[in-house]
Give the backbone structure.
Amino acid sequence: MIILPAIDLFGGQAVRLYQGDYNQMTVYDADPLHTVAQFEAAGATHLHLVDLEGAKTGQTTNLPTIERIAAQTGLFVEVGGGIRSMDTVRRYLEAGASRVILGTAAVTDPDFTAQAVAQYGDKIAVGADLKDGKVAIKGWLETSQNTWETFFDQMQALGVRTMICTDISRDGAMEGTNRALYRTLAQRYSMDIIASGGVSSLEDIRALKAAGVAGAIIGKAYYTGAIDLAQAIALGKGAQL
């Protein structure tokens, strides 16, 4: 199982939100490259980046920062946040992103999603942010009418290979991840499932690996010291800790 430490970008800085609330923002690093270097030192191979401003506006506000990170790291870099056009997909991939994540657009524009998957294959992932069983959109500011079952079925039918699923109620709350949800998703779908939201202990990592998920995103738990990233990566690879 792959461990993906996360950086949320706002104004070119590494920040974290509490349950997607832009009014509850903590700045962790004015220069995200410092944080990336710490991830690499811990043995990380992958990096999860989210442009929080892009998630709200659909603009590539933090593209220069993302391009700088991609140019100065050997990590597999996936990027999400406001990617709603083929031009934006192309810009991120040309900037050095290894994979881009479609969120709101995957819900509101399935034709665009199908086109992106057809053109770029496994360089396209889809993010499903769940709130009360429904898929949230536009930086979690709105909730669609899609249940997660309907949405995941649709994405698998389109040929999506990687789904990044966040339980919003657990995000940043340090209450543990929704293990039952991810176990269900991993068993039901052939897509790679990446767990996000509330991964806050090594026990969560063990449980997610046992459930068969392909990856886990670690955010706040890293920044607060609740999870030792090097240990989490070792567990993901199968080490007994």
Remarks:
- Residues 110-120 form the longest helix (11 residues).
